[in-house]
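Quick start: read one record
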Amino acid sequence: MLQRATDAEHDPFGYRSLFTIAIPLVASVACFSITLFTDRVLLMWYGPTSSAASISAGNVYWTVACIPVTAMGFVTPLVAAAMGRRDSSKNSVPDEVWRLIWQTTWITLGCIPIFATLGWFSPQLFSAFDHPQHLVRAESTYFRTLLLVAPASMLEAGLTAFFVGRRITKPILRTNVATAILNVVLDYWLIFGAFGIPSLGVLGAALATAIAMWFKAAVFFALIVRSNESRTQTSTVRRFELPLAIRILGPGSVLGIQQLMRSSMFSYILLMIGTASVKGLAATSAALSIYQLLSIPAIGMATAVTVLVGQAHASDAGATTRKTIHRSIVAGGLIAAIVFLSLLLIPGILVEIPLHGVSSEERNSVRPIAIVLMYFAAAYGVFDMTSLCLGAILKGLGTTTPILVSTIATGPIAIALGWLHWPPIASAVNRWWCALVVWAGLQAFLLSAFLYRRMADQRTH
């Protein structure tokens, strides 16, 4: 029994390893959420126009940056796989890892002219939506400045792969905490002005984000350069390699397109909820805010799952991989169950968090709707977090197309279900939430089928 316990404790693909990687990543995701929350709140305090500009221009920014930034995130499973294939007798980082990290740098440099061109034409972009001129100026300023963040985010995604793919997560946690603190301080300073700096409003918020993100990328770069492993790299690994860049951008872009399609469909459903009922949209915002807060652990766990499955698959595509996948599903299911029960059992308590500070009259009108939607959010969350876990496993196995297919194939079905109940009335809010649940459920089903087929093919070969 003692020997068994010792073996389990040191199992490189066991539950302990999974949670050891996941916990710092969960804290890092939480830091990012705090950053976004601070930006929105401080801009709301500064003025409604600035807050509105940050939301609209921020969404446009993510539409532009979504694909390249998400694509760089695929470097993580590639690094994990490279570490899984390495000779265990050697402690040095394989040249393949260094080559992957350097390709991230070259790809980022290649995208900078594209971002600069988009920034140049940003006034025309927002004028096309027939917004008031003062709002267009604020949107263009925020968008143009925020584009400075895109290269830093791409670099960060690639550089963090050097640590995450090797199961080293403490530097990521420390850097994210420092970045979040820096961003909060800069936000207040640059938005409202202090120490001789005039109040910059929306420009200050974007500058604060840009400075903080470049600070984060610079810290990761410095940590890599100063590491003992950097001494083992040769000059040949710094070259641009088109085949290796395609190996990153191919499946990575698929993930980026999937994120773009998912965001677009989700935004459309929210737009239709708002058309049906303003109170319903406010209640939806409250329910989704709580779900997104509770689902932070699932996001960190998904990255840990990708790393462990990627290393297990690269080192042994048989029993070890199947065991790692089983443990990943169990761990993901545990988190999903906790979130589900929280939303189901204490919706009245949880919904007070986003409604705090709202007037009594508005709270009384929105709260009953929000509590009902928390039950829908519980069902949606089970399927959504299941899809997140299954998608992480598939990324670890080196395949991303099923993730895109599951999103595109099921989205129109959900929208069609919502459109069955036209014209939009207040009761349609629940129906659109039913469509969201069906959409998430179908995605989870398709991803389960893809994963089952993949594992069945491996057994036959």
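Residues 360-396 form the longest helix (37 residues).
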